[in-house]
UniProtKB/TrEMBL annotation:
Ranges that cross the membrane: none
Protein name: TetR/AcrR family transcriptional regulator
Matches recorded under InterPro entries: AlkX_C, Homeodomain-like_sf, HTH-type_TetR-like_transc_reg, HTH_TetR
Pfam families: TetR_C_35, TetR_N
SUPFAM superfamilies xrefs: Homeodomain-like (SSF46689)
Swiss-Prot/TrEMBL keywords: DNA-binding
Taxon lineage: Bacteria, Bacillati, Actinomycetota, Actinomycetes, Kitasatosporales
Keyword DNA-binding attached: yes
Species in which this protein is naturally found: Streptomyces pimonensis
DNA-binding region(s), residue ranges: 44-63
Domain HTH tetR-type: 21-81
Amino acid sequence: MRTDTNDSWLDRALAPPEPEDHTARRILDAALEQFTLLGLRRSSVDDVAKRAGVSRVTVYRRFQTKDKLVEGTLLRELSRFFQRLDAAVAALPTMKERVVEGFVAALRHTRAHPLFGGLLRIEPEVVLPYLTVQGGSSLSATVEYLTVHLRRAQQAEGRPGEDPRPVAELMVRVAVSFLLNPAGCIEMEDEDQARAFARRYLAPLLDA
């Protein structure tokens, strides 16, 4: 799947998740359902068009190619993920608490998500490249999202003004690694274990 530049991905991932065009929303809803049920490889634009109740020409007018349709679906889910993450940590008073609960919420959401978690189970060979060697755009967007929050916390809590980007990237990479391969000597089977891990190993990074 071809991706746009990192800046474009970031702008689109941080934008409101729902397009203004009602037909585009229907197409993305249908694409999410189609890709979740049958995966990316076995799904065609015709399949999505039929599920959405529109013509294939209508789909192509809005998304041009199947790759663009897949990208649009993933971007909308990433934007929804950021909104849910914001909601999960908004009421917490300190950045350390938000890092801990944000890590827990991120693991919970991605593991349970019908597309993210589902594709890892049914089509890992298709999905893994976009979470690893070809995942630069989505990684950069997620790191930038977290960097913005860490920088705001620095200002609000009077922390040193060093660039929080390296800490943000390390946190994102750790979360992705647990999503891809949860097995290991670190127990992460439930939210209490994830919370204990984040409190012990991730939150102290804010003081590094």
